[in-house]
Amino acid sequence: MIEITISKNDANQRFDRFLRKYFENAPLSVIQKNIRKKNFKINDSRAKADTFVYENDRIKMYISDENYEKWITKTDFKPTDFNLDVVFEDQNIILMDKDSGILTHSTNKNDYGNNLVDFMLSYLHKTHQVDKSNKTFNPAVVNRLDRNTAGLVIGAKNAESLRSLNKAIRENKIEKYYLTIVKGEITKDFTVHTNITKNENKNKIKNSRDGSNIITHFKPIESNGKYTLLECQLITGKTHQIRFSLAHNNTPIVGDRKYGDKNTNKILNERFNINNQILLAYKVVFGKIKNLEYLNNKSFESHKTSDILNLKEKIFSL
């Protein structure tokens, strides 16, 4: 018999979901069979699949040591050197300023140690803010930026905060603002509200009547008649949403190789070495979020905002 105690980060979830994370190397059928055979008890009572586990619950597992070692989630973690710009952090959340060219998550094993999530985990590990003996929870991010989009990414340090932040994202209780420079003059606020689908082969999106709904608000800040500095507010959050919406408006983001204007991009690349979209997730504003009420109405801004404004001066001089 093996006994474990439910930690705070493992708490408040169905028992079968806990087991699927705890025993990631066990087939689902094996987990279900052991639940049916009454091989698990919670606080000395029979454990059912839909029973919820809570902090400090005692789980008794009537399985062999051999199966336990074979099924258990492996948490070996090798912290790497990290390049992390922390805008804000407390015991629950961490706000990071991602560089352009860095992936948010790894997409394959070759990305290990060279993406924002791994930088975050290394930082939290080296500063003793994460318990790697925890089998079912890792700190995670709740918003994702394209590789060549820079700016603010929100991380959760514990399971309760992760659940609260994910719910807040779904309910639009976290306002996300971007800065960009586009080709063309824009003088009035406008909104792009349409439906899109993604071509997976080309990693590009297009209009589709039956696709996902997207809504983005745009506000011009400054224009020289040829280019415009824009603030963009995401209402929904889909892949390439801002980039597609501005191309759809015939005011593409400068430097955007997928949706931009080739002639404009060629000129700006030659003059200022701009070869990717100029897009910065520059500000987040928190609403009232359960368990994180102290963040209500707090606003945080990227350290890279001045870079966009300096680049705007160069481009507007053309």
The CATH C-level class name of the largest domain: Alpha Beta
Radius of gyration: 23 Å
Uncertain stretches: none
Count all strands and give the number.
17
- Biggest pleated-sheet summary: 11 strands, mixed
**How far from one another are the termini?**
74 Å
Describe the structure.
The chain is of the alpha+beta class. It folds into 3 domains: about 1-70, RNA-binding S4 domain (Structural Genomics Hypothetical 15.5 Kd Protein In mrcA-pckA Intergenic Region, Chain A); about 85-170, Pseudouridine synthase, CATH 3.30.2350; about 175-315, 2-Layer Sandwich (Pseudouridine synthase), CATH 3.30.2350.10. Helices cover about 25% and strands about 30% of the residues. It contains 8 helices and 17 strands. Strands 7, 8, 9, 10, 11, 12, 13, 14, 15, 16 and 17 form an 11-stranded mixed beta sheet that branches. The chain has a 4-stranded antiparallel beta sheet with strand order 1-6-3-4, with no helix packed on it. Strand 14 and strand 15 form a beta hairpin. The longest helix is centred in the middle third of the chain and has 12 residues, at about 160-170. It starts with a strand and ends with a helix. The model has no long low-confidence stretch (mean pLDDT about 90).
